User: Fold these one by one.
Assistant:
Number 1:
Amino acid sequence: MSLDGRHDYVIGKLLEGFPDLEEVLARQAMKRAEMCEQVDAFFTADGPKVILFVYQGSTVVQEDGTKLIDSKGGKQLALASPADVKVADQCMYFVRTAKKDVAVASVENDLVSGSVSKNALETFQVMVSDMYVPFLGQNGNWALKAEDQNKEWKDEFIGNATKFGSALSESVTSLQKGIELRKPEDKYLDSMELKNSSFNKAASDEEMAAYFEAIMESWCADVEAILNEDSKGRVESEDAGINDELDYWRTRMARFNSITEQLKSKECKLVLGVANASRSKALRGDVGKKGWKQLDMEITDAANIAKDNVKYLTMLDKSLEPLYQGTVQATIDALPALMNNFKLMHTIARYYNSAERMTPLFQKVTNQMIGCCKRQL
């Protein structure tokens, strides 16, 4: 397959994005029939508008659908499909902006390229919070509505963008602070299948059974620590508002969801299978020590509570907007609807069904009302 200036441009960008990729290997990969055909189709007006590349080990799909990166054969430059390829560290994208065929002379204007790392969410959060929101706040000539509506409309937009940035920040924090359940070593993953025969064979080996039991005991310790966080009490600033309460429960929900998703992986299913086959003590627990079966039920219950709390606190968003963005009079007008929502929460929500847990919410509303008054002075 012959290459022209358009391919050279793509290869040049790939070399910039993947510093350890050699040009010779990039050209060899680009000349392969399958890749060259797809890249050539991308260059045409009727072809796909986006094309993705990865430089990593090949993706191996397990029997249960889990995707793993096989790095034993070394890195390879390949076209990436989100449905078929798991991105290990970085993915490079090319977007065709022209409605015509990409020409050699105009390739730099016809294509836009960039890279997305595995920390894409963190990058997006920084862009929203540290670039877009400050820029929109400092530049007053971007609104298109009538002049007398500009300030109110812009304040509402910037307020919502700020909240979105905060939500992204909480998501990033929950991922960084979330626990990662200990996984068995690769040698066990390669040699064992998710079958009862494999589980029973491992359980009959004392050393292997003890190894998997130790993994499950570490799960119990980590999960119990998270479950006990709420009962130990939270450390919050004196001026914490309702949004802080919502952020807390969003983070907690994300952490439990992360645990639930990890338990669906082959690694975790392997640990559970061997533990069940060996009738591990870590499953049933001991005196003064919770077992995994009990903790698993508590995870489900705690995840449901967090999900419910996020749902009910999100219902307050419309009533809370004046406290964060409006005037004192707007805040006063919003209080009846806010109190009705609180009454509904107290009646329906499992967590907020006591005065002990409703009191902090009223304190946070008061803090936000004080903040609103301060802004108007």
Number 2:
Amino acid sequence: MGDSDSERVQLRIGPWIVRSNRQRTCSVYEVVEVSGARRCGCDMCLNFDRHRKRGEALTPPAVNLLAELGVDPGKEAETVHLGPDQEGHLYEWWYHAIGEVVDGPEPKEPVALGEGLSVMVKDGRAVAHEGFENFPLIEVSFFRHLPWALTTPEPQ
């Protein structure tokens, strides 16, 4: 990545080991104005946005992990409502950090982190925020069931 050792962090996220440039990642997030959910604005994304703002989407350890990578947890790149089921509404949302996956299995299935939150990590740039164009990226995706929290009718 052309970074000095003091700029890099190496972390384990589930079975994956990633190396990231925290400082550069922070710099990109400082200029990101809106999260993926707010950018979309549909009811399913606004439901997720409400839970994220209340601190109900991510667990404290996941928030700490994102902070170590230099990621602003309030500015996910994209949010996807995977559908309602008996456990609530399943969401996937992801963030990017400048860096690479240095070890771990091929990402086929998310792995449980606890408290109903799962994660999957890969090298990727799907719907990355502006500012990440010229860097190798880690994509950290989270999955969680969340209840309906809006006053609008719940989709079935």
Number 3:
Amino acid sequence: MIVRKLGTPDQPELAMGAIASGGVRVLNEELLKYYPIPYDVIESVAAREQEELERRERIYRGDRPALNVGGRTVILVDDGIATGTTMSSAVEALKKLGAASVVIAVPVAPESVCEEFQRLRDHVVFTCLATPEMLFAISYWYEDLRPEHICLEREPVIIDCLEFNRDFRILDTASELAFLALECERLGAPQVGDLILETYSDETGDRPPVQLLAFYKSYHACLRAKIAVWHLKDHVINDAAKWTGRARHYLHLAACGASIS
């Protein structure tokens, strides 16, 4: 089953609705109440997304018929829920297809959205790990969402207990800023990272010691090098030279930070 978000014309990531396999369409009535969008604009976006939905169905499914979910329990998993419109479309589509029950499992969603799904109760079970009052953006709750940084193993692998622990991450803003400065340096623009750190210090009055920033940079660089090396363990290695080179670059940056005393 494919679900496609109907993004607003000026902010595509903001869902004014969604469509799903089986001809299901759900509109975000709450959003449209305060952000009126002409009917023809909605139809134009829906038509474009319908073409993409059908294209993906052909690619993913080929000549195989759609899976029969009638009388079955279906588990829906997503990387997070922002408005809930896309997930609602998926639920409605599954109900239309005769699913006996639907289990929604997500790592993060706004508290208000969680309450809405929990109120459904009509053969729908909702579970969520983090329910912040303010979500801001799903990417805010992840250290790195880039697909190229995903490595699949047969068993779950713990890479780092500090880097991906949000409570630890927000203890010291300097750690996050040092990581940002590290990436600027890796991409050949160290002056941008220096400007960010300088602006932070001027605005907040917080001036982290140079040695502390160097430690944070070295720590983040070592972790990034480890993640790059993990890609060489993938079952299908894409561009081994790229990941080997990136690991070496990060280790070089880590060594540079470690030399500051």
Number 4:
Amino acid sequence: MGMVGKGLINKLFTTGIVAGTLYFNFFNDLKAQEQVSSCAIFGNKIETTYKKPAEKYIPKYNTTTHYIIKEIQKENAFITEKTLDEIIDKSKGIVGLNYKRDSYKTENAKNLMQKINSEVIEKFLKINEIEKERSCFYKTLTYIAISEANNLPLYAVPLSDHMFVRWDPDGKHVLDQENPANKGDFNWDPNFLEFNSDYAYMFRHPKFINFCNRSIQLYLTNLDGRRLISQAYSEEAKSFIENKDYKKALFLSDKAIEFDPKNFRAYETKSESHLKIGLEDADSINFRLAIENYEKLISFLKGERSFFSLSIAFYALKEYEKAEEYTNKALELNGENPMYLELKYRIHKSWGKNKEAQRDSSDFLRVKRRTIMETFPFLPLTEVYSEGLNEEIVDEWNKKIITRILIKDNKADVYKKIISPWGVSHFKNNVRTSEWSWRETEKK
């Protein structure tokens, strides 16, 4: 079976939500020192530049964060091993003076987190302005290094687009504030300098709204050393996807899965890499591999972007029934996303379902126009709609709204027909009017 031309699907993919996913890109603070020397050849001085070999530093500590910056981030590490050691050295004095070695004394532990932030993190950890959006990951890794070196009960906790640390004396945290296992537990957000409950994170991060309890557990759970390393591998893989080095991204994703077979982020980066290779090369094998890994991903986490990506892969393979199935799943989670509506239109058009395609086109244009009008509220309707009669239909649970926008001589008139269990109402420019006025639009 053939495949859809790659120009269209590349447009859909690169402008889609998949491309808009939040990725951590680690910046490089290990710049090689350069030194200029000169030599004389035939009486002329020629300046040459060479890189001074970096002295090999032997770290004092052996934390999970040391492993991540040395074995995973490497030249892209957010901090040097030497600076991390200096941070730990400084933290030891603060822990010795301020921690009473009773992990259940919550107020004492909270004061310790704040002291470490003000006297260590803010002074020693310098984050590039470009990398500010990834600072939560860097700060969490720094806190984990401090906790391991000082034997503190801290764990990294991931969200869909954020990370923080949790103080958990027995390491058995559950999503139930009244559970005895949570005695002494609290969340410390080093990015926002706040102590937040699990439920505060759930309600403040809208991506949780459509997630089932199982999906929330995947996020708001303590990460041990191996799982944190797995997260670091998958996040590093994302930076290689951004640089279009998909083979390296696949290698790092596999390493992430090796450390944690349930790391859904790794399946996400692996799926995306296969899909992008397929889009670039019109390669059916990579589309199949993308589908295989996206199906593994949705066994952990049913998200709209995974459904959207699956529909793209099936659409590229001309398997329109499957493509339609997953587009509908994406629309169930976000029915107002114009990219999903556009893809659904393309699927039906290619499938020969012209009636459905016409309906999809109407839905797509309605959402696009509304988005434009919300973004530019003072933009005249004559700039949004084409000359002549434009019709949009919205079905709500107890009524149908038919809107007709008539553009004529650079003037716009808006007619509405609302059909509900209580009867039919007609409006022109938000003023109630007669059915006759509505029927007149059909002649124009």
